[in-house]
Structure formats: structure tokens, C-alpha cells
């Protein structure tokens, strides 16, 4: 197959793979293929990478059908994977039913939890040692803002994460690509993204943060760059510049005693 992804894209993906040592010879990688623009690009790019490295690693793809709708067209994704010589399977997980039966729980958390569980299980069933997700740079910056604004924590996901409970490693090869680039890449892989079946798509906290970052960046083009820099330990995210953790009641009592009796 003749791949058409521009060298600029390939170079950014290669940079992420090399810098964070994401892929090694003999890896069996399971791709989380939702059908969105990002996971389609990831699947296409890894197939291209596999060819250029002469089969250094193997690939397979998994699509989770959360049963949010009856017209989720995952068969189109199977045809896409066939064209790339990537085995593909569809796993039905009744996430919709779980959310409906547990209305007090945050739906996005519930969905992510059960998706990850199903993907991890299938990865282990096929003796995969790595899982590839299609998170890009905008996702990382938005997660940083989500954690700060809604959880009071400073942090985002890592480009590469080892899951010791399952002996799996999660990799995110698109981490240096911007979302605008994954949109612009659609003509290169030629697959029309599958519409998300999520009933609250576009109405989540992440969407609120996405718009906030876009609005701020429109007023000051350096905003996004500064947020992205804050994710790096040698950038604005140095922990020694943060306040120390809040003291416990016992520690406060001891500090008070030392102050009073000094």
C-alpha cells in the first residue's frame, strides 16, 4: 500500500515515539479505534510506521460499541483496517446501561472506566503488551486545565504510562500533533470519521475547557504555548514552585506549639 501521510506528520509522530521510547522490536500493539478523526489518523500512521520499520512491531485494532445508539457503523472501520492489513474487532459494552442505572455518577468517568477495562482485557487476551491511544497535544493541554479547574490538581496524562496491575503500557504517539492537524489529515488517510454516538458529545466539561483555551489564545497567541510548556518538568510545571501540601491537624498543632513555646 502506498501511504500518503506528509513527512511533517510522520516526523512529529516519530519524534514522540523516539523521545518517549514508545515502541520496541517485537511489540504487539492494540490500537483503540473509536472511529474519530484522531484514532483514524493514529491507525493509518502506525500502519505506515510498521511498513517503514519492516515489521518491527505488530498491530491490531479494537472498537468499543458503548450501545449508545443502534446505528453505530463500526463495519466501516473494519473495512478501513482491512485496507491497512490490521486485524480489527468490535466489542459491545453496555456502557449506556451502566450510566442509566447509575445516574449519580459522572457519565464521562463511567464511560472512560468501562472502555479502559474492556480494552485492557482484550489486549491481554491477544497477548498485546501495549495499547495505543490517539490523544494529541490539545487533549493534553485541556486535561491540564480540566484538572486545575475542576479537581484543584496540576497534572495531565503522560505520553507513555506503564500499568503495573495488567503489565500493559499505554502509548500516545500523536502527542506532538495539534487537533487542527488531525482534522487536516483526513484527506490523506481517506476515511470519513464515524460520528460519535455519545449523547452528550460537545456538551462536556472538556468542551467548555476547549472553548476557554481557544478564546484565551485568540486574545493572546502565546497562551496555548505557555500551557503546553507548563506540562514539562523543565518548563512552568516545576513542583518546587508550588506551595507545600496542606498540613494535617496534628502537624498544625505541633507547629502551633513550637511557635507559642519558642
Number of beta strands:
6
Which structural class matches the secondary elements? alpha/beta
The coarse overall form would be globular
Q: In the CATH scheme, what's the topology name?
A: Rossmann fold
**What's the CATH first level?**
Alpha Beta
Report the uncertain regions: none
Number of helices: 11
Q: Which strands sit side by side, in order, in the main sheet?
A: 3-2-1-4-6-5
Radius of gyration: 21 Å
Number of domains: 1
Strand percentage, roughly? 5-15%
End-to-end C-alpha gap: 78 Å
Specify the biggest β-sheet.
Answer: 6 strands, mixed
- What's the architecture in CATH terms? 3-Layer(aba) Sandwich
Average of pLDDT: 90
Helicity, as a percent range:
40-55%
Give, in order, the helices and strands: HEHEHEHHEHEEHHHHH
Name of the CATH homologous superfamily: HUPs
